[in-house]
Amino acid sequence: MTRARLCVAWCAPAFVILANLMMAALPAGPAGAAVHFNRGNDAEPETLDPQRSSTLAEAHILRDLFEGLLIQDRTGELAPGAAESWAVSPDALTYTFKLRHDGQWSNGDPVTADDFVVALRRLVDPSIGAEYANVIYPVRNAEAISAGTKTPEALGIAAPDRHTLIITLETPTPYFLDLLAHQTTLPVHRASLAAHGAAFTAPGKLVSNGAYVLAENVPGSHIRLTKNIRFHNAASVSIDVVDYILVKDLAAGVRRFRAGELDFLPDVPSDQIKALRLAYGEQLMIAPLQGTIYFGFNTTRPPYNDKRVRQALAMAIDRDVLADDIASGSIIAAARFVPPGTAGSAATTANPSWQELSIIEREDRAKALLAEAGFTASRPLSVELRYNASDNNKAMAVAVADMWKQLGVTTRFVATDSRTHFAYLRDKGDYDVARAGWVADYNDPQNFLFLLESGSGLNTMRWSFPPFDRLLQEARSERDADRRFMLLRQAEDVMLDETPLTPIAHYTGRYLVSARLSGFIPNLRAANATRFLQLVP
To answer: How far apart are CA 189 and CA 490, in angstroms?
Structure first.
């Protein structure tokens, strides 16, 4: 696969993209004007490079632009995508995928197995620095490549022909197919990547294979996608244009929804839920999400490298007050990091013992721990709490600061937009305590616990604890399902005791959905591709 060959394939994408834009601007058949969907997004994407992506806000957009081997359908369940079928070997180590023959990139090039080979090699290539590289650690040699001890070409993936992709695993992985619907495993157009390098994601350069193409990317405002006329199932896509509109202020988002400027709002202010229910009835949808809000501690920075300090701050947080009073019952108080209902969680071991104490007893124990660590009334602890700015996050941060105040702790806040906040954490910025959240990509405890593994690009707590790592490694090679879940529960117990993070609450999806929009079905993964929605003009 030479650069010359790739550049030949990149023959006239600008003309095809122009054709897509013209198509979106034209009337959508007899019904009249093109159907235009104003879709709120609660954070600005840091990247539209699939392999560098790491946030849910990016996943929504990438799900519209690209199609992976598998997709999440309108209910969030796995379904065929670029692969029309697959087979698994008897030892569950080899997956053979057959790609659909009508798959095309938006410039007319065929989608081939090599496009996925390049994408997955990029994901584990250390030079890319993908936060999510360990998502495909089940693939043979993926972890060694990410560690720099093997080259990307050693990855257990092969394309014997244009429409066949073979992936070989290190050990059987029951959730492996779920990984192939994740945004970081999406394919890339090899020719445009070779021609433009890191700029291949810019409007006019990004070539996609999903239901939409990228038309505009206006920082601080919106990202516009238009219907991809070359998508293999374009006939079923009824929305012609989708604007992902940045909603920094949820209260302002509600006002824009009320004015008809937004057809969909991905979150609402907690203190307005009762009023919104009265005003909008079934247009306000609240449903469980498989995710957890947590506060992470910078475990490399004194005094947060002291377990006693971390435990004291965790103990003093009254999660029931946050869930029931601050969030108006729209989130669920969390005792553990892995949400209830996750595979293997039914037999979860006991919660940390301090969670069974009254809040007064917990405050007394927390004060004693801080005193042991050297913090007293004459030498109080001062905490900097960082969070991504929103009405809900601010309310939670202020409430937690009041709870810590009972310990004699003073709190100062640093609030930035989501893009800046998560980039700061990813880039190892200096902090004390930071708010974060995680929504599952696949239904397995490992999808939460791997965040804390030594060397994980998503381990923003910078925590490294060999007993925890060993349990996760043992679980990876364990073929007995019950024993594997037991090992993962033990790993979670170890982590909760060491407290590199403290779970706060389990998410729910809280959406305002226009009466004109149909096909939106809340699901545990918040996976709702625009291709499955319909909007009455």
So the answer is: 42
d(CA 451, CA 444): 13
Residue the block writes with tokens 């359908």: 73
Q: Return the structure tokens found at 273.
A: 């839920």
> How far is Cα 106 from Cα 14, in angstroms, rounded to an integer?
10
Q: In 3D, which of 164, 158, 210 has the Cα closest to residue 189?
A: 210
Alpha-carbon dihedral 494, 498, 504, 507, rounded to 10 degrees: -40
Spatial contact of 492 and 338, defined as CB atoms under 8 Å apart: yes
d(CA 415, CA 434): 10
Which residues 6+ apart lie within 8 Å of 350 measured at CB? none
For residues 434 and 415, the answer to whether their CB atoms sit within 8 Å is no
Map tokens 């405050």 to a residue: 363
Give, in order, the Cα–Cα distances in Å from 92 to each of 35, 87, 178, 423, 537. Answer: 45, 10, 15, 37, 48
The residue assigned the tokens 């917990």 is 362
Let me know: does 86 contact 79? Beta carbons within 8 Å.
Answer: no
- Rounded Cα distance between 451 and 105, Å, is 33
- Single-letter amino acid code for the residue at 6: L
| Bond before 302 cis per omega within 30 degrees | no
With contact defined as beta carbons under 8 Å apart, do 532 and 73 qualify? Answer: yes
Amino acid at the residue 235:
A
Candidates 209, 17, 224; CA nearest to 113 is: 209
Two structure tokens written together for 283: 């247009």
Tell me the mean pLDDT in the region 72-81. 95
H, E, C per residue of 286-348: EEEEEEEEEEEECCCCCCCCCHHHHHHHHHCCCHHHHHHHHCCCCCEECCCCCCCCCCCCCCC
What does the DSSP 8-state code read for residue 283? Answer: G
- Pairing mode, strands 36-41 and 241-246: parallel
Range 154-163 average pLDDT: 98
Q: Would you give the end-to-end CA distance of the chain in angstroms?
A: 46
Q: Is 417 left (phi over 0), alpha (psi -120 to 50) or beta?
A: beta
The mean pLDDT value for 10-31 works out to 37
Q: Which residue has the tokens 């590199």?
A: 500
CA distance 24 to 2: 35
Interatomic CA distance for residues 169 and 181, integer angstroms: 17
pLDDT tens digits, one per residue of 224-246: 999 999 999 999 999 999 999 99
- In the numeric block, which tokens belong to residue 308? 């006693």
Does residue 5 have a pLDDT over 50? no
Residue type, 43: A
Residue 24: which residues within 8 A CB-CB, separation 6 or more? 34, 215, 226, 227, 240, 241
